[in-house]
Amino acid sequence: MAILVDADSVSASRPGRMLFDRLSVTISSTDRLGLVGLNGTGKSTLLRVLAGTEPPESGELRRGRDTRVVMLDQRPVLGEGRVRDVVSPSDGAGVWEIEAVLDRLGMTPKLDVDVATLSGGEAKRVALARALVREADLLLLDEPTNHLDIDAIAWLEDRLARFRGGLVIVTHDRHVLDRVATRVLELERGRAHVHEGGYDAYLRARARRAEKAAGAEAVRRNLARRELAWLRRGAKARTRKPKARRTAAVELVESRVDQPERAGPLDLHLGTPRLGDKVIDLADVGHGWDGQWLFRSVELSLEGRSRLGIVGVNGSGKSTLLDVIAGRIDPRQGTCEHGPTVAVGYYDQTGRTLDPDATVGETVAGGREPSWHDAALMERFWFDADAQRSPVSLLSGGERRRLQLVLVLAERPNVMLLDEPTNDLDLD
Question: Mean pLDDT over residues 300-307, rounded?
Answer without folding.
Answer: 92
